[in-house]
Design goal:
By secondary structure, the protein is mainly α. Among the domains are: 82 residues, no CATH class; 61 residues, no CATH class; 129 residues. It is 77% helix and 0% strand. The longest helix has 38 residues. The chain is globular and about 90 Å long. The protein starts with a helix and ends with a helix.
Length: 500
């Protein structure tokens, strides 16, 4: 429980903690209550003071009872804080419903119905079908007191919402199954056709994708599609979602302001999907829409998306052939990072900068790589295995570029020892094949003149499974050895050769 309390305290700032102590003082009916002392001990993590407060052996039951009361008090305090701070339209609709119901129960009929009507209007726009169900039930319960009600229309609204609520419930079952399938892909290296899986799951529960789509359900589908494509490093697998999502946004554009969380994430996913499918200008269009919404003032969302937008914009310019502009956007993003910025997003920007510099054959690539100071184990956990593998491979390539041959050989040996088993398990043979070609070059640089080496690189470049932009970047590095061009120029040529 002490660990749980410590975790919950991380959600509070210094003012909140002072407020919580005041709350406990007001709640305590006796002066000998030890909850504030326990709180201060947990804050400082002082084991000696804890033993003085209660002997863990002699007073085990009393100590655990005190911890539980402190834990429950903290949850209650947090719940009040959340409601105080949350000014979202969804919470406003909930507040209006609670007040409206209370007023009706207290026989304040006219103003009670007004509150319920406002709550219903908001909940309808926000697609809060569960809340709408509660609101409409109360309206039906007190309909005999509403002189202006059209009971048949009210019943129709209630019935229609019941159907939507049932559809949403079925979709949440489908979503849970799809997320479970994603876990199987992650942990058991299962190969699954995501499009067929989604359609089969929806069909099993008689869910029509057209009828189902809301901002929330579209966001959930795009999340699953993005995770799936990222695992396989193949975004052509999710192209079918581009048109579906775009059509939905065109149809419900006016409602987007009321669904900001989902709308921003949808725009971000579509920007990423278009980028990874080679539709760079379309991706920039979505990013411009995203930035326009962010500029309208929501600080929390701006912090959340700022670095991600810089990353995608930089990648678009890079692959369009304007490497200088891409580099500038990337550096600007890193410079704008603040203490509130996500360390994960910042690591993404930093690795992208290393990738760009490696493709430009810029010697500062190694200096920038050293900015990624966490251990590989940390990156594997926070950024994912494939991200960490990409980082490790880039480090090897940089050392080769600048003639650190012995170090590159050592790093490659370590890489194979650490990741070969994992790569075989997830059937990422292309990474193993790439590492073998790099090893051949390290052992004998003259091998690039041989027919078999050139044929292997060309086969790799022509393989349909290797059309992902990041994978092409590594292939371009190998091909650059053969054609005596910069990896960046070779990459641009590979992009042009592919029909996007």
């Amino acid at each position: 429980m002490a660990d749980a309390i410590s975790d919950l305290l991380l959600l509070l700032n210094k003012d909140d903690i002072r407020g919580f102590k005041t709350f406990l003082k007001q709640k305590n009916k006796r002066n000998d209550v030890k909850n504030i002392k326990l709180l201060e001990i947990i804050e400082t993590d002082d084991i000696n003071k804890l033993k003085k407060l209660y002997d863990p052996i002699k007073n085990r039951d009393a100590y655990h009872a005190l911890r539980k009361r402190l834990h429950d008090s903290l949850l209650f305090f947090l719940s009040n804080k959340v409601f105080e701070r949350d000014n979202s339209e969804a919470h406003e609709a909930l507040r209006l419903f609670v007040v409206g119901r209370f007023l009706l129960e207290s026989q304040f009929i006219k103003i009670g119905f007004k509150c319920l009507q406002r709550a219903e209007d908001k909940a309808l726009v926000l697609e809060q079908f569960s809340l709408l169900n509660e609101i409409l039930q109360i309206r039906l319960q007190y309909a005999h007191l509403d002189l202006n009600v059209n009971l048949e229309l009210l019943i129709d609204r209630f019935t229609e919402n019941q159907q939507k609520l049932q559809q949403e419930a079925k979709f949440q079952i489908a979503y849970a199954l799809l997320r479970s399938a994603l876990q199987d892909i992650h942990l058991k290296a299962k190969i699954i056709d995501i499009n067929k899986l989604i359609l089969s799951v929806l069909s099993k529960y008689s869910i029509s994708l057209d009828d189902l789509l809301s901002f929330k359900s579209l966001y959930q589908l795009l999340y699953i599609a993005n995770e799936y494509a990222a695992i396989h490093q193949n975004y052509t697998l999710v192209r079918s979602f581009l048109k579906t999502a775009d059509n939905f946004l065109m149809k419900y554009d006016e409602q987007s302001a009321h669904q900001l969380f989902y709308y921003l994430h949808i725009l971000y996913y579509l920007a990423n999907f278009n980028l990874r499918n080679g539709f760079f200008n379309e991706s920039i269009g979505y990013l411009e829409r995203l930035n326009e919404v962010l500029s309208q003032g929501n600080t929390v969302f701006r912090v959340q998306f700022q670095l991600r937008c810089h990353l995608l914009m930089a990648l678009n310019f890079h692959y369009l052939g304007d490497g200088v502009k891409g580099l500038s956007v990337l550096r600007a993003g890193i410079k704008q990072a603040s203490p509130k910025s996500s360390e994960v997003d910042l690591a993404d920007l930093q690795l992208c900068l290393v990738m760009f510099l490696t493709q430009f054959e810029d010697k500062t690539a190694l200096i920038e790589l050293r900015q990624l100071i966490r251990t590989d184990a940390w990156y594997e956990k926070k950024m994912g295995m494939l991200w960490t593998i990409r980082k490790s491979l880039l480090e090897i390539l940089i050392h080769i570029q600048f003639d650190h041959i012995d170090l590159a050989t050592l790093k490659l040996k370590s890489f194979v020892g650490r990741y070969k088993k994992y790569l075989l398990n997830v059937k990422e043979n292309r990474v193993i094949d790439f590492a073998k070609l790099v090893e051949k070059y390290l052992l004998n640089p003259a091998v690039i003149q041989g027919k078999s080496f050139r044929a292997a690189v060309q086969t790799m470049a022509e393989d349909k499974e290797n059309k992902d932009l990041f994978i092409m970047g590594f292939i371009a590095w190998l091909k650059a050895l053969i054609v005596s061009q910069s990896p960046y120029q070779v990459l641009l040529n590979l992009i042009k050769e592919n029909s996007w």
